[in-house]
Amino acid sequence: MFTSLADYEQFIYQLAERYPVIQRSTLALIRRGRYIAQMRGTIYFSAEMRLQVYEELVALPQLHLTGYGYEAWQGEHKLYWYDSQPHPHIPELASTDPHHKHVHPDIKRNRVPAPDLSFTHPNLPFLIAEIEALLAG
User: Three-state secondary structure along 44-87?
Assistant: First the structure.
């Protein structure tokens, strides 16, 4: 979808314009070289909901992620998180390895497949829609 870090940077800085559910965002693309960057920050929603975002990006030959972590919070309560740490020893995660979601109960060890996450397309539209659905009840 994106061919360069500049394209992706423009996308993240326009998220609040594209998604009215976003109240504000502190996302920032931090370049670590000509073709490498990290994105960090928080997207804020109503009802004390927020999404903490971390992505590692490489733009060779096209933009793709090499790692990520996304945490959904409501106030001081962590609702769930996604990460790209491989768990080849867990057969239930094989269908989307390494993409998975940590959920309650026992949020640290309770993992489920995450078929909507990818290294090759932006994950933020899905994550924003997921929080929007939570807010809608």
Answer: ECCCCEEEEEEEEEEECCCEEEEEEEEEEEECCEEEEEEECCCC
